[in-house]
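My current task is to audit a protein record that another person submitted. Thanks in advance; the entry in question is below:
***
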Amino acid sequence: MPRLPVALLVAMAAMLATHCGGAAAVDPGAAPSQDPAPAPGVRLNGYRAHFVIAWNGARIGDADERITAHGDGRTRFERRERITVRRGQALAHSETDIAIDTGPDLRAHRVDVRQIASGLLRRGSAHRNRHGDWVVHFADESERRIPGDAVPAELVPLLIATADPDRAGVRFDGPVLLPGYGFAVAHLRVEAEGPRTLLAQLSTADGVLQSRLLLTRGGAVARVQTEGGIGARRVDEASARAPFTPPEIVDAASIAVAGAESPGAVVDALVLAGVPPQRARPPRLPGQQVERRGDTWEITLRRGDTCAPIATDPAPAPVPTNADPRLATLAARVAADVGPGSARDQAFALVRATADYLEDDLGTPEGGARDALLLGRGDCTAHAQLFVALAEQRGIATRLVTGYRVDDRRLIRHRWALVAVDGRWIAVDPTYGEAPAAPRLLGLAVHGPRASELALADEIAFAGLAQLSARRAAAPLSDPQCGPSRPRTP
């Protein structure tokens, strides 16, 4: 099951609340001062804040933030976030530390992130090169360059809080860097929706995630809520440290399906009702057909080798130079067992080998293919990542898919893969060793295996779908009229 990233939500909870934690509020009616205004970073010196984080009303963690200004005008923003949930019977705990160094104008020049998930440590950093662009390193991923106009998302609330208090309408509109999401990049727009309400919209190519911030009469944040059910509120330190019972999130995130499935059926038909009007229809993927009628999706699921085009560049990511040599060894061994078979035979064998190699474990810490290989166990994300890494070692193009899997009378959040072989795309499910995948998969987002892509997919894929109702349809949609989906080359 995909994870529940919450870093941006907590950052947005600081919006305007900084006036209550060390930064003095400005009185619009006061006479203008003759002294030069202190730099934003100096005005925020001493800011402290504590937050409680909840999911669907149940507490899942807390976060602390602070700002320290140095004598030379430099400022350091620090945040620590702690999340604890149950995934099935397994307890999953994670901590994320983010430190952002800025100049007196709050322009960031370095960002460091440290994440621990059930004992697994990952580090990352971003610094500006001589052109002002970001150079990013995260875990064992290859180096990336990101345009320098991207603002660390944690600084956006602080920039807003120190801006003109009389400013109305749009408060921020531009690209943001998300350190807690593997240094993902998205577009953030924050605007006043009402006298005490702000609307924040985080956009990517796959969709939009909305958050609403409700403010007190004094301008502090009273409550924040996203479409995904995650909320945050500012509290005192004692409340942030209070013990709580971690909720179970796998079953809680599932959607009940009315009506039993037919044993051995090669087609499954569903109707999902309550889809928000702004929610885009799922992408066209192998094995799925979706039509929208009002606030419902009419869905037909077939085997993963049913043809359908995919509007995403299928070129595989280059094999990283620091890839674990055991990936190449395992992939070569599987290929040798297949013998002189086709790329399709090799890909399908790698799907089955992944399912055999990894033990199912919902409590496995979030990591990449190397970690899955080392631990020998993992959830659906670990299975999908390991398969993609093995396929890349054999030069086979792949993409990851985030969405739902039909489990008899419920839809559960799931991750699987697409593989391009013999001039067409095929959906495969490495968790269950299905190649092609059974008619159980509804894909909502297509993406790559980087931590940043996974984290954004977890946010965007399920946005606005928490209140859906599902039932089995009387009949499937008519057979799709399409030819083979052909992989595009860069």
